[in-house]
Each structure stands twice: as structure tokens, then as C-alpha cells.
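Propose amino acids for all 261 sites.
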């Protein structure tokens, strides 16, 4: 294990997590709604993920603030407008450190870190409002494929790239079939996210792809059972599946003996 690399990526995860907090704030809104740009309580505008021009001024007369505070509260009025304090930052840092310890070479690690950043934001948004915005799933997939393409070009592992692309498409098609069979179980956003997760987990091999998909369904089933037993949900109620897809895929990738090949 490369200790300095783990430490560097853990620090990078903290910084990226702070940026992701703004992304989550902007896109954790109902479908069909424009990205959030201001505190819902005091309407103080926020530069969430760079979505606002700097000359803009809020109704309160203040210039937009640079980002959502790591405290998860509006810096103007103190109301909670994001995930719990440091939650996103710490999750991203731990995930980046784990990837640095388990995944190589560098370009494959870059692909994993790229997808991890988008996946953390998507998981949080899905948990909050049960949607996976195209504005995030599209760059997640494009960047993952681009980094793996570079990895294949440098190493000559074109078979790995072909398997990764086919794996991503296969998993996306499988989720699309589930959408047709039962829209209450998964949605189109899940299928789009599956394309990225399947691409990354198929790079080490088909077993990692299958393990990641199975782990996602297992985690989701366990969570659903707990909700039913505790009577916090009723049978047939839809739950956000994105977080379990993400958790299953990255657990499988980290556990794979081929992840560092």
C-alpha cells in the first residue's frame, strides 16, 4: 500500500466532498425543478457548484457566497440546507483513501475516483429526493469511460476496456428491463447510473460486476426488510435504490483481488 498516495487522496476527498456539498444542495430538488441557487429560508444566493455568476446579488443585497458551508447550514441565517456537518466530506475522503489502497494503475484509479465523486453526490441526492439527475449521471459515465480508454491505450489492455464497456451496457439494459417490468422498483435514473457502475466494476472482470450488482440488491433488500419490520414503510413503497447500487459496486471493486491488476 502506498501510504503517501492514500494520504493525498484522503485529503483530496475532503476538498472534493466540500465541492460535492454544493452539487447536492443544487440538485436535491424535485424532478422538473431548476437547480437550487438560494437558501429557501432567507433567499441568500449561494454559488453552489459554480452555478451562479459572481456579479449576481441576492434579494438580501449580499453577493453570492462561495459555497455551501461544511456545517450544512446557510451562512446567512443558519438554517439547515444540506447533509449533516462534514458527512459528505468524510465519506468522500474515506472512499478515496480506500480506492488509493486497492486500485491501480493510476489511470484506473483516476476512473474510480472520478466515478466515486459523482456517485457520492448522486447517492445523497437520491436518498433526499429519489432522483438521479442526468446532469450528473452523464458526466459520471463519460469521464469513467474516458479514463479507462486512456488506461487501455497506455497499458494495451483493450480486452479489459471492451469488457468494461460491454459490462456497463449490459447492466444498464438489465436495469432498463426492471424499469419496464416494475417501475416502482427502479427508475430510468438507476439504469443510467448502472451504466457507469457496470463499466467500472467490469474492468477487473465479470465476477466483480456480478458481485457489485448482487451486493446492491442485497443491501437494498436488507434495508427494505428493516423498514418493514420497524413499520417505517409499507409493502410496495419505493425507496431510493441509488445509494445501495453505489455501495454494492464500490464494495465489490474494493474486495476484488483483480482491482489492482
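Proposal:
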Amino acid at each position: 500500500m502506498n501510504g503517501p498516495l492514500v494520504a493525498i487522496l484522503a485529503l483530496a476527498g475532503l476538498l472534493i466532498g466540500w465541492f460535492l456539498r454544493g452539487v447536492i444542495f443544487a440538485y436535491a430538488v424535485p424532478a422538473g425543478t431548476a437547480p437550487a441557487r438560494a437558501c429557501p429560508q432567507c433567499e441568500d444566493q449561494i454559488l453552489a457548484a459554480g452555478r451562479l455568476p459572481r456579479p449576481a446579488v441576492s434579494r438580501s443585497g449580499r453577493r453570492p457566497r462561495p459555497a455551501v458551508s461544511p456545517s450544512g447550514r446557510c451562512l446567512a441565517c443558519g438554517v439547515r440546507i444540506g447533509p449533516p456537518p462534514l458527512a459528505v466530506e468524510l465519506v468522500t475522503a474515506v472512499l478515496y483513501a480506500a480506492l488509493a489502497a486497492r486500485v491501480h494503475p493510476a489511470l484506473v484509479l483516476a476512473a474510480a475516483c472520478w466515478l466515486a465523486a459523482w456517485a457520492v453526490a448522486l447517492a445523497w441526492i437520491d436518498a433526499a429526493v429519489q432522483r438521479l439527475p442526468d446532469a450528473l449521471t452523464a458526466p459520471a459515465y463519460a469521464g469513467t469511460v474516458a479514463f479507462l480508454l486512456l488506461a487501455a491505450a497506455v497499458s494495451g489492455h483493450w480486452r479489459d476496456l471492451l469488457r468494461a464497456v460491454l459490462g456497463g451496457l449490459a447492466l444498464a439494459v438489465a436495469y432498463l428491463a426492471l424499469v419496464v417490468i416494475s417501475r416502482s422498483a427502479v427508475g430510468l435514473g438507476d439504469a443510467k447510473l448502472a451504466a457507469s457502475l457496470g463499466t467500472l466494476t467490469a474492468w477487473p472482470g465479470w465476477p466483480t460486476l456480478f458481485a457489485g450488482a448482487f451486493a446492491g440488491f442485497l443491501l437494498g433488500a436488507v434495508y427494505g426488510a428493516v423498514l418493514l419490520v420497524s413499520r417505517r414503510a409499507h409493502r410496495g413503497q419505493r425507496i431510493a435504490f441509488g445509494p445501495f447500487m453505489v455501495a454494492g459496486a464500490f464494495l465489490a471493486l474494493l474486495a476484488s483481488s483483480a482491482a489492482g491488476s
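Confidence is low (pLDDT under 50) at residues 48-60. The helical segments are 3-27, 87-102, 106-129, 134-155, 158-181, 188-202, 206-229, 242-255.
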